[in-house]
Amino acid sequence: MKWILLVVLLAFLGISKSQVCNQDCTRSGIEFLCGKTVRNGREIRCTYRNPCEMDKHACQKREVWRKDATGRCTRDSDECRR
């Protein structure tokens, strides 16, 4: 019985998390920022239209993204196109 409750709880948390990843960022406006993460020991920088877009991408990729600078990145990493 405990296992069933645990599975149900984990499934519920997974559904709640996926709903956050599908948030609508169209009303957030345009406020370009350069976001940064570390993937496989390599720093990756990507330009986002607003903080909402960066948070949405972070959620979908299950990564931690932080604001590196206001405005567009000097150079977006190749991984940004994927």
UniProtKB/TrEMBL annotation:
The region annotated as signal peptide is 1-18
Q: What is this protein called?
A: Kazal-like domain-containing protein
Known PROSITE patterns for this protein?
A: KAZAL_2
Q: Locate the Kazal-like domain: which residues? A: 15-75
Q: Which InterPro entries match?
A: Kazal_dom, Kazal_dom_sf
What UniProt keywords apply to this chain's record, in alphabetical order? Signal
